[in-house]
């Protein structure tokens, strides 16, 4: 597998779990605001065999779960084999995905405990293409959503990063409307965009970090509504916090 980095212990990637985080290299989207843009280059990272990864995981006594992120992990040709091996050793396994490869998710789903689907914007091709600077088939993402949402054994999180100067409050309202219409059963997380050096200095002024008050204002209309899912906010002021 092409690995861009490993964090031995994290307490913020999976709620209530001590987690080893594995970053894969490569993505099929071109989001200009990507926090891990350095992982998009095929020249970055190094090949590590699955057997060596498993040895490293087994030697880590501090982490009881594995988070596979990126980049887009489902692009890795040996991800199916890796998830099988993690299943054999009894680790709680979570994967982050942009949802554009539902056929890959279908294969690895039996070996996963948690999936975090990163919805970049409203479920329309035009808006999605603008936000991701990519040509996206929204039907593939909807297929991934429906596949995961039907699987009751999967801890399902959907997250959207709110980027000032690129997105607007109506984008979030449309996402939540989609989730309500389709009986989403997991947790929705509204994340604060934060600049990282990986984005590139040339884009530093193109986007803006929203304030905590901005995120609260966007979500205010949902505070007293009965929803089939919970809403969380994740930012640098309150961390990972339940909103409703």
If you had to describe this structure to a student in words, what would you say it looks like?
The structure is a single chain. Helix 3 runs parallel beside helix 5. The mean pLDDT is 94. Helices cover 28% and strands 23% of the residues. It is globular and about 50 Å long. A ten-stranded mixed sheet has the order 3-1-2-4-5-6-7-8-9-10, covered by helices on one side. By secondary structure, it is of the alpha/beta class. It is built from seven helices and ten strands. It has a single domain (2-242), classed as Alpha-Beta Barrel (TIM Barrel).
Write a brief caption for the model.
The protein has seven helices and ten strands. The chain is α/β, with parallel strands linked by helices and 244 residues long.
What is this structure's SSE topology?
Layout (H helix, E strand, L loop, with lengths): L1 E9 L8 E6 L21 E2 L2 H9 L6 E5 L9 H10 L3 E6 L4 H7 L5 E5 L6 H8 L5 H13 L4 E8 L6 H13 L5 E6 L19 H8 L10 E6 L3 E4 L2
Parallel strand pairs: 2-4, 4-5, 5-6, 6-7, 7-8, 8-9
Antiparallel strand pairs: 1-2, 1-3, 9-10
Helix pairs in contact: 3-5
